[in-house]
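Q: What would this chain look like folded?
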Amino acid sequence: MDTKSTNGSALAAFLAAGIGAFAMGLIVVLNEMGVFVAPTLYGPAGGVSGRTTLAVVVWLIAWGVLHGTWRDREVDSGRVALATLVLVAFGIIGTFPPFWAVVS
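A: My prediction, written as structure tokens:
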């Protein structure tokens, strides 16, 4: 019986979350700069409905691709954790209005 241990599936979910958070920050910054305007998908919510939907789509695609690539692998959890934290931090920074003033 082969008891090979893999962590790729779990780490794919972690890194995909970081990619999704970064996508949200990037979409917000691009929207505030007037480079990209996400469509309004739900009128009462305004443009935030399109921005969050696009970020979720990016997250799901990243998760699917990473899971398909890493599901049978042992991946370095330290590097994935660091990359996830950096991506989440940049994503959060991108959603702060004072940052928009700097980049616009």
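The two ends are 59 Å apart (CA to CA).
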